[in-house]
Design brief:
- The modification 4-aspartylphosphate is found at residue 57.
- Residues 8-123 form the Response regulatory domain.
- The protein has 125 residues and is of the alpha/beta class.
- The chain has a single domain (8-124), classed as Response regulator (Rossmann fold).
- It has helices at 16-28, 39-48, 65-75, 95-98, 112-124, and strands spanning 8-12, 32-36, 53-57, 80-85, 102-107.
- α4 (95-98) links the parallel β4 and β5 (102-107).
- α1 (16-28) packs across α5 and α2 (39-48) runs parallel beside α3 (65-75).
């Protein structure tokens, strides 16, 4: 299935293999994808470019995922954030109370094709 052209996506993920897997699915849907592996790199990318969707792993190795979410909300308020995690933290849905730009909360093991469809949906909106 083809995606919407012009959807700019930032993947913030410490696991390079997982980020690459997600990126490949998104690029096949004609999304423009950047990858950041640290919170500092993610904030730099948000400063440099506009994104429609940010896929943000809450389990970043440097522990700065919530800082990235705050930064995105302040400097890229139109971007929708899809949070992913392999833990049960925020599984009660409270993430949506803390971040106005949160649009989804998914397990890291979500099928990459399903994640790509969600990114395309929120990015085209």
């Amino acid at each position: 299935m083809r995606g919407s052209p012009g959807v700019n996506v930032l993947i913030v993920e410490s696991d390079a293999a997982l980020a690459g897997l997600w990126s490949g699915h998104l690029e096949r849907m004609r999304c423009a994808v950047d990858i950041a592996s640290t919170s500092e790199e993610a904030c730099d990318r948000i400063r440099e470019r506009r994104y429609n969707v940010i896929v943000l792993d809450l389990d970043l190795h440097d522990g700065g995922a919530l800082s990235v979410a705050d930064w995105a909300e302040l400097y890229e308020p139109a971007a929708r954030v899809i949070f992913v995690t392999n833990t049960t933290f925020f599984s009660d849905g409270s993430i949506f109370q803390f971040f106005n730009n949160a649009c989804a909360f998914l397990p890291s093991a979500t099928d990459p094709a399903d994640l790509a469809q969600m990114v395309n949906h929120y990015g085209a909106a």
